[in-house]
Amino acid sequence: MIRLALLLVAIALPGHMARAEEIVLGLSRDQVAITATFDGSDILIFGAVHREAPPPVNADPLEVIVTVAGPPETAIVRHKERRAGIWINADAVRIEGAPSFYAVATTAPLGEVLSITEDLRLAVSISRAIRAAGNRAFETANHVAALVRIRKAQDVYRLQEGGVDLDRETLFRTSLALPADLVAGNYTTRIFLTRGGKVIDSYETVIGVRKVGVERWLYDFSREQAALYGLLSLALAIAAGWAASAAFTGWRR
Amino acid sequence: MQLYLPIAEVSVNIFLILGLGGLVGVLSGMFGVGGGFLITPLLFLAGIPPAVAVATSTNQIVASSFSALLGHLRRRTVDMTMGAVLLAGGLVGSGLGMAVFNWLRARGQVDLLVELSYVIFLGTVGAMMLVESLNALLKSRRPGARPKRRKHYWVHALPLKMKFRVSGLYISAIPPLLVGLSVGVLAAIMGVGGGFVMVPAMIYLLGMPTKVVIGTSLFQIIFVTAFTTMLHAVTNQTVDIALALLLIAGGVIGAQLGTRIGARMKAEQLRILLALLVLAVCGQLALGLVLRPAELYEIQSVAPS
């Protein structure tokens, strides 16, 4: 009986090192409400490393990686070329499942804290996270690179090496500034503990970003009662046009 | 002061959008153009997604055009009969244009066609107007110059004659129908109300007086853009009512100012200014086609399939 239990534990916890060190996570908030005056939001992601036994001696230093991915969307990346003197869209590639927002924060340079094989397996780095969604990497390499470059410039794809503070290999924290033009949806948050490039524990949770109040009502209205919404927009336009005209006439007299 | 737009899903500065709306409103009231060819690129610059910018600006044009139209109605400078005939042609034209647009979209390269047709039409129309109105202005300054007699074009020889009282015209209904039709096609392809093509066409092809042209153009723009707004709201759900309200608030005030400025200016001066504006937009678009873009790739986000 005890042997069977031990066997089950061994199956459930693959890898000899696994679960020797575990993540205990806290979030300053797990819901973000988008109101009319929403102007970005800061989220504090913090936690501790729980150990049953003292940390292994002579092991590689403990590192922490935190990733936050916005809802996936499909991006069409177009490439311009010069033909007959003018710049036109020459080719386009559909990139499926590219997150609308992706941030990676680490305790040290990503290349040092995560091996390439682990990155391939878990899709942690920005370019892997995009390619993971079954995009043919070979044919679309230039377009994926352009997508990452443009979105990095817009600050919606971020790599913050050294952005996670780790205290005495036990307490870690990082702060995430969500931008003002945030897409509503589920933001998947993953935390990885690594030693020598290998992931020894991971934890996944979701930060929900929701529109509330008027924002939500208008959004739902525009989707569910599209014709009525259109008529309302037109009625408002006509009323505003009339009101302005009437106001100016009155003011001149 | 920032406002998060529910449909566009971006946060914008309220005063920036109010200002943009106001600027376009002034132009709309002065020249009788909807301003769609101006507001849409400006909204792109403010960070609004293109689909939302196109759809929402049509809604804003309804408001500013209606406000300006009321000003013109009071001054009796709207030819309703002419407007109705143009509109009849215009609605048939938008139907045709939409078919052409979808056919081209299936073959890719819609963007290029839209930009090229902008450059060609704005360039031709702007240059013609500028030359003609400069000539007219110079002639009117020369002492002792006699006002030119109204010319008789070939359009006056066609059947189906109608009386357009406000314009002081007795011409066939066929030319206005054709003008409306071709503007409708252009409007659907280029995503604008078509005022900048309509206004010169009414002046030079139909021989209507400039003051009447503006009110009449506004009259038909309201119907065309209202139709387009409904189309966008129902099929793409890209009309952002919060963004529209901000643009409208700026736009209706601007339109009233514009109508007053326009009423105080000479017809030739108005035409020169409109011609310069049209040429400026054309030049900017042409440069964009010819110069090497800073970023050779561009991203269009679509809902996950």
UniProtKB/TrEMBL annotation, chain A:
InterPro entries noted in UniProt: CHP02186-rel_TM (IPR019088)
**Which residues, if any, are the signal sequence?**
1-20
Span-the-membrane segments of this chain are: 226-251
A UniProt-annotated Pfam family? Alph_Pro_TM
- Which top-rank group of organisms is this from? Bacteria
Q: Which UniProt keywords apply?
A: Membrane, Signal, Transmembrane, Transmembrane helix
Task: Report the protein name in the record.
Answer: Transmembrane protein
Q: Which organism is it from?
A: Limimaricola cinnabarinus LL-001
Automatic annotation (TrEMBL), chain B:
State the family named in the UniProt similarity comment for this chain: Belongs to the 4-toluene sulfonate uptake permease (TSUP) (TC 2.A.102) family.
GO CC terms in record? plasma membrane
Q: Which domain of life is it from?
A: Bacteria
Instruction: Indicate how the chain sits in the lipid bilayer.
Output: Multi-pass membrane protein
Entry-linked InterPro entries: TM_pro_TauE-like (IPR002781), TSUP/Inactive_protease-like (IPR051598)
Annotated TM spans: 12-39, 51-71, 83-104, 116-138, 213-235, 241-258, 270-291
> What is the protein named?
Probable membrane transporter protein
**Organism from which the protein derives:** Limimaricola cinnabarinus LL-001
Keyword Membrane among record annotations: yes
Q: Where in the cell is it found?
A: Cell membrane; Membrane
Arranged from A to Z, the UniProt key words for this protein are: Cell membrane, Membrane, Transmembrane, Transmembrane helix
